[in-house]
Design brief:
The protein has an 8-stranded parallel beta barrel, surrounded by 5 helices. It has one domain (about 5-240): Aldolase class I (TIM Barrel), CATH 3.20.20.70. The protein is about 40% helix and about 15% strand. Helix 3 (about 100-115) links the parallel strand 4 (about 85-90) and strand 5. With about 240 residues, it is α/β, with parallel strands linked by helices. The chain is globular. The N and C termini lie close together (about 10 Å). Helix 1 runs parallel beside helix 9 (about 225-240). The chain binds glyceraldehyde-3-phosphate (G3H). Glyceraldehyde-3-phosphate binds near residues 27, 157, 190, 209 and 219. It comes from Symmachiella macrocystis. It catalyses: 2 D-glyceraldehyde 3-phosphate = 4-(hydroxymethyl)-2-furancarboxaldehyde phosphate + phosphate + 2 H2O. GO terms for molecular function: lyase activity.
Length: about 240
């Protein structure tokens, strides 16, 4: 199966542009709040409403900030129609009980929403900068927790991408472990269309972008449908060539 294209949007206006561009998964995120920045719950609900009203065949995911953001705050109730949720792992490394805390916060979101949520575990590949557990630990914890998948992403959005942090054999081994656990693999980290032919060889299930979908490749600029079409064409061409 060729990978699906996830595009992160900050609101319903950007969601329309991402749909026009042909995204497969609409991800809601506020990029000004960090790698896994959570948008306001009103924006999350508005995007979920757009998808429900238009009845398009697109899944919706949402970023929920970092696990540590919720130690002293009550999670809001996520609206129906959210297929996946992602909670960052920055700052968890020094905590020996991080898995329990991570599980506890996810449970709080499920209690607030009054339903089970499909979780995508977040493995920051620049984990030392993020002060998060290393990817290998996250992959093991995700399997133990029964997460739907694992996302490899960069915490720092400074232009360094996936292979600046992980070697190809390392990525291949991690992907194999995740697929062996019957989970999805999502890759992100300022991926550009030129990186797709290399990435597709690792058989990710999802390629996740924000920067490449924005004007001038700047993740805090607005989403452009044309940039997404260009990226989708690169994915299509790479899938044919593979
Ligand atoms: O979930 C994926 C991220 O939004 C990707 O953002 P980025 O392309 O700016 O690294």
């Amino acid at each position: 199966m060729p990978p699906q294209l996830l595009v992160s949007v900050r609101n319903e206006i950007e969601a329309e542009a991402a749909l026009q561009g042909g995204c497969d998964i609409l991800d809601i995120k506020e990029p000004a709040r960090g790698s896994l920045g959570m948008a306001d719950i009103e924006a999350i609900s508005a995007v979920a409403d757009v998808i429900q009203q238009q009845q398009v065949d697109v899944e919706v995911s949402t970023a929920l900030g970092e696990t540590t953001d919720w130690y002293a705050a009550a999670p809001p109730a996520l609206p129906a129609g959210i297929s996946y949720a992602k909670l960052g792992t920055a700052g968890l490394r020094p905590d020996l009980d991080w898995q329990q805390r991570w599980t506890g916060v996810r449970r709080q979101f499920e209690l607030a929403a009054n339903r089970n949520i499909s979780w995508i575990a977040v493995a920051y590949i620049d984990w030392e900068l993020a002060d998060s557990p290393p990817p290998l630990e996250i992959v093991a914890a995700a399997a133990e927790a029964g997460c739907a998948g694992v996302l490899f992403d960069t915490f720092a959005k400074t232009g360094r991408g996936l292979f600046d942090w992980l070697s190809k054999p390392q990525l291949r081994a991690l992907v194999n472990d995740i697929h062996s656990a019957d989970q999805l693999v999502a890759v992100a980290g300022q991926i550009a269309a030129e990186n797709v032919p290399t990435l597709i060889d690792f058989a990710p299930d999802i390629i996740a972008i924000r920067s490449a979908a924005c004007a001038e490749g700047q993740r805090t600029n607005a989403i452009h449908a044309e940039a997404i079409r260009y990226f989708k064409t690169a994915m299509h061409n790479a899938a044919i060539a593979n």
